[in-house]
Every structure is written in C-alpha cells, then in structure tokens.
C-alpha cells in the first residue's frame, strides 16, 4: 500500500515537474538593465528615472543578430495624464519589474521561435508616453515632468551599439501597440544607426493606428494625437517628409507617413484591432450610455448594428493601410481577429492553434519575409470568417475604463 502511494506520488511529482518545465519553456524570465549614463544626457523617463531594457543574449549562429522590440502602453496627452503615469511603470523605471518573461518573437527556444530564437533579443521598456518622439528641454519644477522620449530612444540604441550591435549582421526594430508605432516612426532612423552592411528591417505589431471618427462623429483620436505631439514637443522628431506638408499631429498616423519609409517594414495587425475599436471607434466619451460596453469586452456580444459599424471600420482601416504603398518590401499579415498585439504572445505567434492566413502563422510569414524566402502580403476576409482567431475577451474588473 505504502509502495503504491509512493509510486503515485513520484508519478504526480514527475507530472508536476514536466508541467513546470513546459511553462518555463514558453516564457523565460529576463533581467532588467538600466541605462544609467543616459541620465546625464537628459534621456530619462517622465519622472526623471533612467531608461531600461531587458536583454537575452544571442548565441551560436545568432550572436551578431539583433532584435530590438519596443514595449507598448499608449500615450499621455497633457500634464495630468503624464503625471499619473509617473506612478506606474509607464512613467518610471523605479516601478518596473526587475524580470519579465520573454515569449513569442522574443523566445529563446527554436520550437517556439524558429527564425529568431538565437538572436540578441531586447525588449525596450516604455516610460516616456510619446512613442519615443518627445524632447522638451525645460523641466517645469511645478510638475517635474521630463518629456524626453526621443533622447531615450537615442540613448538606448547607443547603449546597445556599444554592447555589440555595432557589429550586427542582421537587425530588426519591432514593437507592439505604441511600440509598434515607434517602430514605424523610427524605422529609417534605426536603419541609419545600425552598421551600413547589416540587413535591417522593421516590424510593427498593432501599431497602425488610423485617423477615424468615433461613433458620435467626433475626431477624438485626431485631437488626442495633436495634444500628445504638442505636450511632448514631438514635431521636430517626426518625419520631415510629413511635417513639411501637414500638421505635426497628423504625422503620428502611419497612413500619413508610412509610404515614405525606405526600410523594408512588415505590418502585423488585426483589422478589428481591439484597442482601436475600444479607443478610436467607440471611446467612452462617445458612448455616454455604455451601449458599446459589452461589445468592446467580447465581440460575440456585439449587436448586428455594431458588427456593421465594425465592418465599416475595417474598410477604413484597409483604406488607411493602402496609403503605406504596395511595394513588395512591405509585408502584411492583416487577420480578422478581435485582438491587439500578436507577436509577443506564444499562442498567437507560433503554436499548434495559432491564427493563420493562407495556412501560414505570423511567425512563418515574418521569418519568410525577413530572410527573403518569400514575400507575404495577405488580408483576411471579414469577421467572423477566420476560425483560427484568438478573439480577446476582456475582464470588466481589469478594464473599468470600458
């Protein structure tokens, strides 16, 4: 009896160890690096703390390959919203986790990330609130806010160059959400900072935010972006090919500047991007009676009229995307999922049940495009036609703003 119980216990223990190993292989914790010497250059987070990143070093054949991935986290558009950020990791490196899990495109395991697993993989923390475009020299002592995103960008890249990226053979600038917008806005600049002989491309995941009216007809996101650009002094760090023609706030929208990007770039985006549906199409201010509340939490709870409005939004999105141009150097993976950011999570980057377009996962599409094995430009049919989608369902407790 005791022996049977002992055997069962050992079997249970083995199962537990196996489960923990599997969990560990999908995401590995990587420690934080603070760029302390950036402080002297005024390249700091909103609260004046040093910028930071996490670096999992390359190995084997990937030792001279660099993937620089920018964290997301929206933007702040005035002193009030920027001050509130200083009490979170999005405005202060003092509040950042000292370790974060790397998975998806950042994974170090060949099975989960076959094309980039052995590269130097860096996740740059986001603490400036302007997609790394701001640079206001003066600091108002009344609020002690530092609008220095562009300086942070430069300081982080210079730090990585000094740690081996100056010898890069291959390099990718990628990012998710506000980090995806960063990879669009800074794509050519990144190319200019990396060695001339390197193969350099960019990847924007959920970064193609569009200038669309909300459900009340107001230009909510356009006004918001104009305030971000004005607050952070971003105009001088946005592409001059755009700011010379139109108001700087409009150059925060990729549809107005992406065609000018010379470096090859790949856009991964949901046509029904959950952040854009929640914050551009149906922000709370445009929905005072909360008609869209349930729909924004779970797309299956949308009414036929709301689905029709979202289908119209998809068409606006595709029209805005078309303005980026059709060059074969540009990659497209536009699925019809209700999702936001699909490259950082293992389940959507590469797993047996990951979303596919043309029987191709995001991981394979990006890898084939980067290594010139084959171009990839695919746009999904309208919702709900793709059964492989991982449609997000939001917990109302975690998203009270909805």
From TrEMBL:
InterPro entries, A to Z: AB_hydrolase_fold, PAE/NOTUM
GO biological process, one term: cell wall organization
Subcellular location: Secreted, Cell wall
Signal peptide limits: 1-27
Keywords noted in UniProt: Cell wall, Cell wall biogenesis/degradation, Hydrolase, Secreted, Signal
Record EC number: 3.1.1.-
Any one GO molecular function term: pectin acetylesterase activity
GO annotations of cellular component type: plant-type cell wall
Superkingdom assignment: Eukaryota
Family membership noted in the UniProt record: Belongs to the pectinacetylesterase family.
Role summary: Hydrolyzes acetyl esters in homogalacturonan regions of pectin. In type I primary cell wall, galacturonic acid residues of pectin can be acetylated at the O-2 and O-3 positions. Decreasing the degree of acetylation of pectin gels in vitro alters their physical properties.
Protein name as it appears in the record: Pectin acetylesterase
Organism, scientific name: Quercus suber (Cork oak)
